[in-house]
Amino acid sequence: MSVNHSLRDRFESGLAAPICLTWEVTYACNLACRHCLSSSGVRDPRELTTDEAKAFLDDVAAMQIFYINIGGGEPTIRRDFFELVEYGLSRGIGIKFSTNGSRITPEVAQRLAGNDYLDVQISLDGADAATNDALRGEGSYDTAIRAMENLRDAGMTGFKISVVVTRHNVGQIDQLLDLADSMNAELRLTRLRPSGRGVDVWDELRLSAADNRALYHWLMDHPTVLTGDSFFHLSALGDPLAGINLCGAGRVVCLIDPVGDVYACPFVIHEQFLAGSIRDGGFGHVWRDSELFRSLREPGSPGACASCGSYDACRGGCMAAKFFTGLELTDPDPECVFGHGETALAQRVSLGPRPSPDHSKRVTISSR
Amino acid sequence: MPDQPDFAAHWSLHPSVSLRDESFGAMAYHHGNRRLVFLKSPLLVDVVRQLDDFESADAALEALVADEQRAALRRALETLTNSEIVRVG
């Protein structure tokens, strides 16, 4: 999807309802990935009840939101997970959920296959166990592969293999594409953000400038690979990548967290980007009336990027990447393709704010 | 280039498509091929919503669209058949 400018202006001022709504249904997780963007691990006792979750799905249906992305934590850990999925589907909502694959048994795969309104995204962060497990924990590669095989064997096609691109796996993207082909799946690559526990590994894992350039050209050469619009900061390198190419936070995307708090996007779980709670008047009220969302829908200021001829291509990049690296929101993206972000990082007065809240397990078992 | 679709046939919104009004027109989402498509004029949205009520796409255009806008609307409708937002026949 490539989008002309007048339409992009409409996106900038916000839509009647989000295009893409992420709903994290629990902070509980059986893994402890080092880059977890929601700092998940332990269930929050205040998480939405089944009835509250269904009422939220009623709101989603009433707002005609086409589909939602369910994540976590590991969403399938919730005992009512499949009940909620069935309920959403019965209301005509398309549902895609992200999982590490641990609950995708052959029986579950059979239940999932063959429904147009249902899609599954298996997280995998390397083309081999060593690369993946260093980030996601011992055994997680085998678990993910088994889940993919179960889905393939159940006849499900076009499910997603979702990869956060890091310094360690960027050299494996051709292999990952081959893997997706062999599973009748599609490859989805997304950007590593310094969000959640990702802030602790960002410097170690983020792509170099050369990696980013190579990735941009690879994506241009492989238009069927999905990106969730997450590499739009690279569009300043030439022709725009497919997508709307602007920060959609509070405009076309948002996040509902497990306790019903609404954040501007999945990568800014921090009080500064908290728009409200669905427990306080419902989701539609927050989407339409939140002061934060209204301010995010104002035309953005190019700030420090005003003199750069490529501002129109990248719109200054990712808000979350700036915020958690301690940059101003009017600074260039820390991974600005022209190196302006590196300059800004060198000049910052303090490190970024710590992500909040943190649901990490107190003791994490290191895989190294 | 695909062949031109048959405007003399009956057209309708694909049953797997959800359509949502927006200030610029509407967004359409196809749950089968998962394409998100933007309908960038309220007139186009009107026509798409009513296609099913007419015996052909041409009949719908004749009834709903002024002469000078028909060519543009035909082109817009044609792109919607490519993404399977509307189906022919």
Shape of chain A: globular
Strand order across the largest sheet of chain B? 2-3-4
Number of strands of chain A: 9
Q: Report the mean per-residue pLDDT of chain B as an integer.
A: 93
How can the largest sheet of chain B be summarized?
3 strands, antiparallel
Total strands of chain B: 5
Strand portion of chain B, in percent? 15-25%
Beta fraction of chain A: 5-15%
Low-confidence runs of at least 5 consecutive residues of chain A: none
Enumerate the strands of the largest sheet of chain A in spatial order, edge to edge or round the barrel. Answer: 6-5-4-3-2-1-7-8-9
Oligomer: heterodimer
Cα(first) to Cα(last) distance of chain A is: 41 Å
Class by helix and strand content of chain B?
A: alpha+beta
Task: Give descriptors for this structure.
heterodimer; A: 368 residues; alpha/beta; 14 helices; 33% helix; 12% strand; globular; B: 89 residues; alpha+beta; three-stranded antiparallel sheet; 5 strands; 37% helix; 25% strand
What does this structure look like?
The complex is a heterodimer of chains A (368) and B (89). A nine-stranded mixed beta sheet of chain A has the order 6-5-4-3-2-1-7-8-9. The mean pLDDT of chain A is 93. In chain A, helix 4 crosses helix 6. Chain A is of the alpha/beta class. In chain A, a hairpin with a 4-residue loop joins strand 7 (253-256) and strand 8 (261-263). Chain A contains 14 helices and nine strands. With 89 residues, chain B is α+β, with helices and mostly antiparallel strands. In chain B, 37% of the residues lie in helices and 25% in strands. In chain B, the strands form two sheets. Chain B has a three-stranded antiparallel beta sheet, with helices on one face. The longest helix of chain B has 16 residues, at 67-82. The mean pLDDT of chain B is 93. Chains A and B meet through helix 1 of A and strand 2 of B.
